[in-house]
């Protein structure tokens, strides 16, 4: 199981904050919940045609689905968590993940 992430949110009025979210990778989608065990997701991002950008120094990654106009930016708690997420995302995008 992948570790929880801090998900970047842009709020109305232009304020930007990081919120801890439970993110689950289910091929071919990334599902975001407010907390582990929640039934209803707060966001869903389809991974088809997503571009993955990694900023190691900030422990961040960003997924952009240009065709759908959707994006998700997230920050890991540490380098090991970032490596776990980036590896899993790359495997799913390449068709190797479950």
Overall spatial form: globular
Report on the biggest sheet: 7 strands, antiparallel
Task: Please give the order of strands in the largest beta sheet.
Answer: 4-3-2-1-7-6-5
Poorly predicted segments: none
Question: What do the pLDDT scores average to?
Answer: 84
Proportion of β residues?
Answer: 35-45%
Number of strands: 7
From the N-terminal CA to the C-terminal CA, the straight-line distance is 12 Å
Task: Output the number of helix runs.
Answer: 1
Q: What's the order of the H and E elements?
A: EEEEEEEH
Helix share of residues? 10-25%
Rounded to an integer in angstroms, the radius of gyration calculated over CA atoms is 13 Å
Structural class: alpha+beta
Can you walk me through this structure?
This protein has 98 residues and is of the alpha+beta class. Helix content is 15%, strand content 45%. The protein has one helix spanning 79-93, and strands at 5-10, 16-26, 29-33, 43-46, 50-55, 60-65, 70-75. It has a 7-stranded antiparallel β-sheet, with helices on one face. The radius of gyration is 13 Å and the shape is globular. It starts with a strand and ends in a 5-residue tail after the last helix. The model has no long low-confidence stretch (mean pLDDT 84).
